[in-house]
Amino acid sequence: xxxxxxxxxxxxxxxxxxxxxxxxxxxxxxxxxxxxxxxxxxxxxxxxxxxxxxxxxxxxxxxxxxxxxxxxxxxxxxxxxxxxxxxxxxxxxxxxxxxxxxxxxxxxxxxxxxxxxxxxxxxxxxxxxxxxxxxxxxxxxxxxxxxxxxxxxxxxxxxxxxxxxxxxxxxxxxxxxxxxxxxxxxxxxxxxx
Length: 193
Known about the structure:
7 strands
């Protein structure tokens, strides 16, 4: 959504089996996802986490994968078909200023924001839309690469999340990353700034 968006062709590497040697997608998402959930995944690329998310939500759940790049979504759709979970994955094209998830109002149980918020033109807008899509008590796993996002920038993202109605549930650890689990508070405002 900004000039810092990962190029679409890098999606092939990010979804490759070699990446699993460094990061197991199941271990990342399993603690937060159960069968029947609705999961929001902004910036899914070609589906490195999406396939695992779709397996975990089962036939009664769904994953809403939102990306600004049609070629990323095309790659994700191919992977979903190959994995036999295409019926559980809904892909959406985002716009430059919106995730286009207003219809999800208070439906998402979990949002995975893995190395994506720093690519957004506005962290405040991102968290406001994620909060609007999230049920009260829903969680959001925020992971940002420390090589791209310095501590000061990550703190600014957390402040934007707090303004949108998310609070810190727990700190998480991922190699070379800043990571936290956030929880949507009930009754908090979710206006974009």
